[in-house]
Automatic annotation (TrEMBL):
InterPro entries associated with the record: 4NH2But_aminotransferase_euk, Aminotrans_3, Aminotrans_3_PPA_site, PyrdxlP-dep_Trfase, PyrdxlP-dep_Trfase_major, PyrdxlP-dep_Trfase_small
GO cellular component, one term: mitochondrion
One Pfam family in the UniProt entry: Aminotran_3
Enzyme Commission (EC) number: 2.6.1.19
Catalytic activity: 4-aminobutanoate + 2-oxoglutarate = succinate semialdehyde + L-glutamate
Any one GO molecular function term: pyridoxal phosphate binding
Keyword entries, A-Z: Aminotransferase, Pyridoxal phosphate, Transferase
Name of this protein: 4-aminobutyrate aminotransferase
Length: 493
């Protein structure tokens, strides 16, 4: 915390201490990160209120508003607090679907985005594959690659999480056929047939995903998304396999044997599908924690087994860290907890990185010819500059450690709440996973609405899960406010 206290108030960093609310480690003092952040949520109208309702009506005439959660006033939002158009101020533990890393209106990010470097990249946006700026290598090395997962020293940059996933799948297929050709050139039959979307130029290959997985909504990624039917209905898809993801029983300490057996069953299923599917499986894609599908966890033993299995079968392993990456689990990358002997073949990222892409280490995953992985933008230097500033902010304030410590405190307090409301807080999960915590509750959607009336923007996943996705600047005093609001909602719902 000492480093935090040295930063000037001009940049919006508070230098005063904050005492936790009475009853929850009241003796502990911390230094909040924002000097202008509210001390409490404030709800003065219904949500949506009258101003928001009129604005939503106008918006609906030109834009689909059926998935709208809040109509926000971002100019008045700060730190962990999100403002709506009616002046309501909510503690935000959903953070734009887990994508805001260091707080609303973070002053240091504002400085980075106001720099000549960022403005030049914004107004002269380069087609990176053809006309990259001279500083592109330096920017990658000091930003995106500075936090690359161990063993993965190259990157393909992209626009969004689904884009990162799609291009990683392409890399897996290209690699598979390159290995099968053993260096031979394309045949005339391949060149001719591919223009008709036929074999051998368009081969039958597959990506395996897991039941309840979510990997995006574009055409290739959608074929590996299994979280909700509404994502996939009416959309043609590839005939690709899915395996069971472990469905663990909680509390973990009381179900060690059953959970170990469940994970072994799932690994055996993966191996069986790889061996029996009607076409070769080029890669297995997996989330460290299945997020959209209900916040489903597995042990490091499962993931170690999955890595060993994919290597033994000659199948690539793609780890989808779009939601779990960039510090959310108390590690910069969630898969760091697995203690793998060899790294994954590719790791995708987006959301809190504010840019996107996939990391890789094997040079053979770079296509053998130009234009095989290509589009006009191939990412965005402005977003790469922003991610570099985010990385610097995370390092400056040791925010990964903050997330781990805050998560530990929050989880222990939630355990106490679960004892008090056993029918309302079920299957509490996310211990030692930073603030990446979830639990199941009956009447989940009604519970989420109730939390808004109490000044907390919180999200759900799957059918019954309440998921916490706070920012990396979420601290123990924010956690205490959240806990108080949770208790009020649990009493009232």
């Amino acid at each position: 915390m000492a480093s935090i206290l040295r930063h000037s108030s001009r940049l919006g960093i508070r230098t005063a201490n904050f005492v936790l609310p009475r009853g929850r480690n009241a003796h502990t003092t911390v230094a909040p990160y924002f000097n202008n952040e509210p001390s409490q949520p404030s709800v003065t109208t219904s949500i949506p209120g009258p101003v928001s309702r009129e604005a939503i009506k106008e918006l609906d005439s030109v834009f689909d508003t059926r998935s709208l959660n809040l109509l926000c006033d971002y100019e008045k939002s700060v730190g962990n607090y999100l403002a709506d158009m009616d002046g309501n101020i909510l503690l935000d533990v959903y953070s734009q679907i887990a994508s805001i890393p260091v707080g609303y209106n973070n002053p240091r990010l504002a400085v980075a985005m106001s720099s000549k470097e960022a403005v030049d990249a914004l107004i002269n946006r380069p087609a990176l594959g053809n006309f990259p700026p001279g500083y592109w290598a330096s920017l990658l090395k000091t930003g995106i690659l500075a936090v690359a997962p161990k063993g993965l020293d190259q990157v393909f940059t992209a626009m969004a999480g689904s884009d990162a996933i799609e291009t990683s799948y392409k890399a897996a297929f290209i690699y598979r056929r390159r290995m099968e050709r053993e260096g031979a050139d394309f045949t005339p039959q391949e060149v001719e047939s591919v223009m008709k979307n036929q074999a051998p130029g368009s081969p039958e290959l597959a990506i395996m995903s897991f039941k309840k997985a979510f990997h995006g909504r574009l055409f290739g990624s959608l074929s590996t998304t299994r979280s909700k039917p509404v994502h996939k209905l009416d959309i043609p898809s590839f005939n690709w396999p899915q395996a069971s993801f472990p469905q663990l029983r909680y509390p973990l300490v009381d179900n060690i044997r059953a959970n170990a057996e469940e994970e072994m069953r799932c690994l055996a299923e993966v191996e069986d599908i790889i061996g029996s599917w009607h076409c070769p499986v080029a890669a297995v894609v997996v989330e460290p924690i299945q997020s959209e599908g209900g916040d489903n966890h597995a042990s490091r033993t499962f993931f170690q087994g999955l890595r060993e299995l994919t290597q033994r079968k000659g199948v690539l392993l793609i780890v989808d860290e779009v939601q779990t990456g960039v510090g959310a689990t108390g590690k910069f990358w969630a898969h760091e907890r697995w203690d793998l002997r060899t790294p994954p073949d590719m790791v995708t990222f987006s959301k809190k990185a504010q840019t996107a892409g996939y990391y890789f280490g094997n040079p053979l995953l770079r296509p053998n010819l130009p234009y095989r992985q290509f589009n006009t933008w191939m990412g965005d230097p402005v977003r790469a500059i922003l991610f570099r500033a985010i990385i610097q902010e995370i390092s400056r304030h040791d925010l990964v450690r903050n997330t781990a410590e805050t998560g530990c405190y929050l989880y222990k307090e939630l355990e106490m709440l679960a004892l008090k409301f056993p029918e309302r807080i079920k299957n509490l999960r996310g211990q030692d996973c930073g603030t990446f915590i979830a639990f199941d509750t009956p009447e989940r959607d009604a519970f989420l609405k109730k939390m808004k009336t109490l000044g907390v923007n919180i999200g759900g996943s799957g059918e019954t899960a309440v998921r916490l996705r706070p920012m990396l600047v979420f601290q123990k005093h924010h956690a205490s406010i959240l806990l108080e609001k949770l208790e009020l909602a649990l009493k009232d719902i």
